[in-house]
Amino acid sequence: MIQIGNYAVALALTFCAYALFALFYGARTGRRELAKSGERSVYAMFGFVVLAVVALEVLLMRSDFSVEYVAEYSNRDLPFFYKLASLWGGQKGSLLFWTLILTGYTALVALRNRNYAGKLIPYTLGVLSVTSMFFLIMNKFAANPFERLMVDHGGAGLQAFTAPDGRGLNPLLQHPAMVIHPPMLYLGYVGMVVPFAFCMAALLTRELGAGWIKLTRRWTLFAWLFLGTGILLGGRWAYVELGWGGYWAWDPVENASLMPWLTGTAFLHSVIVQERKNMLKVWNVVLILATYLLAIFGTFLTRSGIVSSVHAFAQSSIGNYFVTFLVIAALASIYLVVTRLAFLKSDNQLDSYASREASFLFNNLILLAACFAVLWGTLFPVLSELVQKDKVSVGAPFFNKINVPIGLFLLFLTGVGPLLAWRKTSWESMARIFMWPTLAGIVAGIITIVAGERSIYPIMSFAIAAFVLMTLITEFGRATRARMRNTKENPFAALYGITATNKRRYGGYIAHLGFLLLLVGFTGQAFTTEGWGEVNVGEKFSIGKYDFTCVDIADVKDPNYEGMSATLALSKNGKHLANLSPEKRFYAASEQTTSEVRMFHTPLEDVYVVFANVKEDTNKAVMQVWVNPLVSYVWLGGVVLALGTIITLLPNRVERRLIRRKKAVENLLRETDKVAVR
Amino acid sequence: MKTLRTLAGPGLVLLFVAALSMIAPVGANSQSAKTHIKDPALAERFNKVSDDLICQCGCNMGLRVCNHENCPSAVPMRHEIEEKLQAGASDDSIAAGFVKEFGDKVLAEPPATGFNLAAYVMPGFVVLIGLFIVATFASRWSNKRRLSTASSAPVDPEIRERIERELRSK
Question: What pLDDT, in 10s, does the model give residues B62-82?
């Protein structure tokens, strides 16, 4: 299996090199057959990467501890799914997994555009092959997961060795969310390479009209959806597994995933302006290039160890490779944009600041400001060390101070933008359309103040959320009523009807609703209550409105770990709500101790309980408790955001009709060819 | 029925906000999950002081939230804060003690002095540059528009007369 894995990577690299040559040279010289053979090489490259991944998975399943990676990230008693997930549990395996997704995307682009006749697709596949080549070189020479485990036998030098058992997967990664969080995140991160490749191909071929934008939109949305879902799943994992009561710590690795998501969001909005008004062409090119470069930069940040991070398991010395690749990609991008500026002139102009295109501009400005603030804060410790030889830390208070007002302004624009007309909105019409939303915002602010809140940001957050919610209700309400008048449908059928007929618009509004819920959920952090209790069986303590009675303390045993659990009966106003049994676990293979959180969810708040430790002098269990309001809105917001994005991804009626016609024409041509051959 | 429909939107929004406001009156958090200090005022101060510091084990997490089991840095640091608070030390003096021991990197935010000021100024500066660029391009676009409007302004009366004469002659 080790040999199969090694040969598979080598063959994938060979096919990649051939694809690179055939695609670029074939497209440049007009040798269509050569370019076609390059396309076929892309499938072969993907096939061999699949084979390499299968080989590594087989080694993991067989617990073949003669392989360094397997010995490092797996152990005999590791459950099946976590053995599977060990593929992305360490540096080398996760890079191979990255290559799998990248070559998968490349093959998919080739497959979906196999009948495309122009130069754009060969060049796109060529750019994708360049990126694939970089990662395959890493897999082969810098981070090979098939290397044998070697032990230094003193005078005899390094010798192959088979360990009796592995060190096991990091216990913190042994969680269901970790089985799906990295694949989602990778699908998003790597997915951003597709719009980048289309953009670079458009720049190379000077085909900078609407074509590449149309071909790219769904790929970008797809990658953006997965990146966002991956980020949220990471937050969910941190919340349920790390046991500190929160889900986002502004860790450099978290920030690294947020930055391309922010520029990707800006691109998805500004591209609408290009489609409608043929404006912002340079801007869109810059945004998509920046998104890709930030994705690569994020990977570098995660794996180089240049910044301190809680994700220390992924650090290594491969940072230099990434820096080199990043610099080359950035220089190539800048060169192409500068030399193609003449092809990127806008055909229209901004008529008024009170217009939808202006709101998109401001939305972009704010999103980029947020991205810059995150990038600046993440890199400032490194800069500080370089400039003043003194390292400083930039933690959550800094990021919150900068990004909370930015987030609130962005939420405000989410409400304003969709209601403004293209070109220009008159003051009278603005007064009319924003009257109800503004009133809703003011009333919400007053209610929040009357309810006892005095901090400015929570008040503003709820007020703006009410404003935006009202704008969304107004938009859906107006269209639904119009359809009801025309078709005599009931409200639900009319609501479905307007969404189905204009998926991009209403799917976008649903995504905005998701964003609103996310920000409301984030605001809940301002109201967290926390405390601790020291209990033995039969004893109780209270935190906020909740009472906790210890009903049992017991040992837990599993082949993979052992530990203790304390069962607490949770009640409120004398009414029993649930039994919660948080655990303290010790994983022998990795010699690590972890806390298994237990929660009680309500629509408004989570009761979050951690078994901290057993106090030696009193032999009592120490329990930490957080009452976290509105956390469920964060996850709900994520689901709604994803749902809205999926709706916008679905083809509309016109597109479906075009696809059907295209297929019919293709079938007819095929039939005609057959007749001609006969 | 029409009134009901008109009020449905605002009603939904108010319901949403009323639900949210139920969580608001909790007031100041007077306990902490990370300290056994029982005095609510001291526990609150413990939260603030430990939120403003970074754990020094290399995890880059806030001191209060670092969750590493028996962390060699966070556990003794939190214990030191507890002791100093109970001994009557001020929040600033506790932070200053840690800065003396570890340097500025122990603070969760860089002190706003010297080069570190750039950390706070740059994001705002970038927004201003962005606004300037947007305003410049917008005005350039508007100028273009004025020029194109000007070109379609009323034509010279002589030319107009000639066009009309030629049209009539046809």
Answer: 888 887 777 888 889 999 999
Which range marks the domain in which residue B162 is found? 116-169
Task: Flag whether B124 is in a domain.
Answer: yes
**pLDDT value of position A517:** 93
Q: Are residue B44 and residue B105 in the same domain, yes or no? A: yes
DSSP code at position B88: T
Say whether pLDDT at A509 is over 90: yes
Q: A376, B123: Cβ pair inside 8 Å?
A: yes
State the Cα–Cα distance between residues A516 and A508, nearest whole angstrom. Answer: 12
Shared domain for B145 and B124, answered yes or no, is: yes
Residues of chain B with Cβ-Cβ distance to A452 below 8 Å are 24-27
B64 and B93 part of one domain: yes
Q: Looking at the structure, do residues B53 and B104 belong to the same domain, yes or no?
A: yes
- In b/e form, how buried is each residue of A607-617, taking b as 16+ CB within 10 angstroms? bbbbbbbeeee
Read off the tokens for A422: 């293209």
As a whole number, mean pLDDT of residues A444-448 equals 88
Size of interface A-B (CB pairs under 8 A): 218
Condensed to tens digits (0 to 9), the pLDDT of residues A337-367 reads 898 887 777 766 777 777 888 888 888 999 9
Residue B6 lies in a domain: no
Predicted local confidence at residue B5, as pLDDT? 59
Higher pLDDT, A153 or A71: A71
Number of structural domains chain B divides into: 2
Q: Which of A368, A398, A448 lies closest to B108 in CB terms?
A: A398
A309 to chain B: which residues are within 8 Å by CB?
59-60
Backbone angles phi, psi at A153, to 5 degrees: -100, 45
Q: Does residue B31 fall inside a structural domain?
A: no
Better-scored residue on pLDDT, A632 or A312: A632
Which CATH class name applies to A527-632?
mainly beta
Please judge whether B33 and A624 are an interchain contact, meaning their C-beta atoms are less than 8 angstroms apart. yes
Question: Do A219 and A112 meet the contact criterion of CB atoms below 8 Å apart?
Answer: no
Is B60 found in the same domain as B120?
A: no
Which residues in chain A are contacts of B141 at CB distance < 8 A?
346, 348-350
Chain B interface includes A342 (CB < 8 A): no
Q: Are A167 and A85 in contact (CB under 8 A)?
A: no
Q: Does the distance separating the beta carbons of B10 and A462 come in below 8 Å?
A: no
Q: Which residues pair with A85 in a beta bridge?
A: none
Task: Determine whether the interchain pair A307/B33 forms a contact, defined as Cβ–Cβ distance below 8 Å.
Answer: no
Whether B144 is covered by a domain: the verdict is yes
